[in-house]
Amino acid sequence: MTLRKPAFPPIFKTLRRAALGAVLGCAPQALVAQEPDREVRLTSRSGTLNLTGSLLGYDGRYLRIATEHGELTLPLAGVTCEGASCPDPDAWVPELRLSGAARLGELVLPALVEGYARAQGWEPERVESHEGHALYSLALPREAGEAEEKLRVSFRLTSTEDGFADLLANEADMAMAERLLDTEELSLARDAGLGRLDAPGRLQLVGLDALVPVVAPGRRLQALSLSQLSRLFAGEITDWSRLGEVAGPVRLHLEAETSGQAQGFETLVLERMERSLSAEVVRHTDADALAAAVVADPGAIGMLPFGRLGAAQPLALTGPCGLRGTARPESVTTGDFPLTLPLVLYRPMRRLPEAAEAFLAWIATSEAQLVLRRAGVTGLAPIPIPIESQGGRIAGAVLSAGGDVALEDLHRMLRVLGSRQRLSTTFRFEAGETALDAVSRSRVVQLAQAIRDGRHSGESLLLAGFSDGRGGPVANHDLSLERAEAVRAAVLSLLGGEMPSGASLEVAAFGEAMPMGCDDTETGRGINRRVELWVAPLR
Length: 539
Prior knowledge:
This protein has helices at 17-26, 102-120, 160-168, 183-191, 226-233, 260-270, 287-296, 329-334, 354-362, 366-374, 391-400, 407-417, 438-452, 473-494, 522-528, and strands at 39-44, 50-58, 62-67, 70-75, 79-82, 95-101, 123-130, 133-140, 148-158, 174-177, 203-215, 223-225, 251-255, 282-284, 300-305, 313-314, 316-318, 324-325, 340-346, 384-386, 421-428, 459-466, 503-509, 530-537. It is an alpha+beta fold.
């Protein structure tokens, strides 16, 4: 099978965030500058329209071109196209170009591509691979002759930042990210005409991962607080004796600076506590190299992705309130583990080929979730968490309850939830607001789709709202109720205003009655601001 190389124009190949502002500061048109090798001339069938521009893409029906008037989308059937880059509809093969986080592009998404091909009865083949790039072909086998190619998926393996730069430069259809884009990046995307990348449909949640503190096997240390973790990696704690261990120097290990997970760690643990990363950190090319270094060094501490811990000894995360978070599949899926990070795809307001859209839709299926688990990533399928397995949570609620949480509040919570089962689907919010965060907006879409597909037929769904511990009990109860109602309204809006027959969706609010994290840090408070999904048979 002869294949062309992925169409990655040779512009903005090494853009970093610092350069993006300069590029956009000139004008958004800088991102759709015409390229001579992609130039096409379009004439409408009626002869009333004549355009010259640079071909940006073709989805099987529509051409996307950059002109002196900006970016335009036109149906190929309505124009005559002249130029070497004009697509041939008879020979055209749909392609999806992905660029960004190497962790997603090396293992997770290739596994999904191969799983999708098998689910369709196609043959996946890795037809091209060189440093930083890979190209997969998905083809329908033929009894004789050449296979019929259905879809190509190409990967450029760099970092979250470079994936975002490629998206701006039209070198990728979607950016692979292992952290959420920050406000500056989202603003740059809007200025470039890509739309709101954190909006539902623009951010596709692939799975969830977590960063886990690890030490060499055999250490007595079992847990750290987020404050201790930040002081360690800021270089303020330099000897293990400060943590009750045998005296010895602390040596810090992280993945490369371009790792989105390492960047997420700095944001969640250091920046939120107004600390800076120590210059003594040893960097590693990947998780396997980092794990091996920590295992070999009794003085080491590092941060590893959940599921890639190797032989290193994981540590729990604790706080002054006595609550302890341990990385487990259910705590990562719910986001209750403090250092949970999303694995996402960002897509701009651009048309994609139907074959690419079908693959992206398949990622949310139960079949795809099995593929994700085999790839070592926590998927999006709801995990049932029975009430009887939540003794630790309930005990923590009792022990951490302050003067604002009366015993009758805990009794009411147990009466309401006691006959139900929690699902791992959880929604979280911005500080002091009823606005869902970007990941939770994606979860709303998933829940609405599950309800529409009948996966909750015969069930009573309950959205249970909780708050952090700031503010008074009445205000916290009201805010947690508003959040539960906001999720319900968002789900119903996607369902056309009402639940289908055979299922119900209710709300309840419990304020600060069952914290999952300690309120001494913004990370802990963010965990506590949540709406949980509980289910029971419909009566």
